[in-house]
Amino acid sequence: MRTALRALLGIFLVGCAAATPAASSNVCHEPMPEGPLATPAANYTALLAAPDRSADDKALDVQRKPSEMLAFAGIRPGMRVAEIGAGRGYTSEVLARAVRTADVHQGVVFAQNSPALLKMFAEKPWSERLATPAMANVIRADREFDDPLPPEATNLDAVFDVLFYHDTVWIGTDRAKMNKRIFDALKPGGIYVVIDHFGRSGTGTTETKTLHRIEESVVLAEITAGGFTFLRSSEFLRNSADTRDWNDSPTAAGDRRGTSDRFVLAFRK
Q1: Ordered alpha helix ranges (H), the chain
Q2: Which of 23, 64, 136, 191 has the highest count of CB atoms within 10 angstroms of its CB?
């Protein structure tokens, strides 16, 4: 039986690799693997409906789809996770609530912001959020993107980079070094989840500052070059109506904020 199942999986993967990608995506959608990426039984609805979550965060849920993100990564109580480029802390708080346990030594979130990012816009809202009870299991990490995680961030189950990978390009981050540090911090089998705005085909990294977009193929190439294995993508943040030719940064997008076509990628150590 196992031999037959392996054979069927092999046929699927060969066909998947040989198939011509759809015009809207550059990656093959593989079946859900076993392990950390298997959707947990936990229902995230109650977690996200918690009365102490801010109205702003709940409004942002519509465009960020945190329940789908948590399920995609298989986040469960007791996990050790990290976020690169935490910004004002929306995703870090979602993760903190999802991994929280009664034991304060479990269910930890390491949340990184660079000093420049904090100075630019994040220091006040980030510090205020960290002072709330919901963030009690979050460890603040003010560090450069080149070396984003503190020494104690080891044996991690998952690392997230949500809408910041493109920024590491235009600010001049050594992304090979950054990805190596993330690789080292993860446990064997740990996952690296990257969510970002689709760039137009052929633009590579040239519009990371002007339009805050990056080609999916660039992210795939850079992270797999760092030793990671690409696992799968998801379409829960896709928007085929996005023309990909406008600036989707929060300060420039205006009424279009949150409507960009976004890729969701998972890699395994």
Answers
A1: 2-18, 45-48, 55-64, 66-73, 90-99, 115-117, 123-130, 165-170, 175-185, 216-225
A2: 191
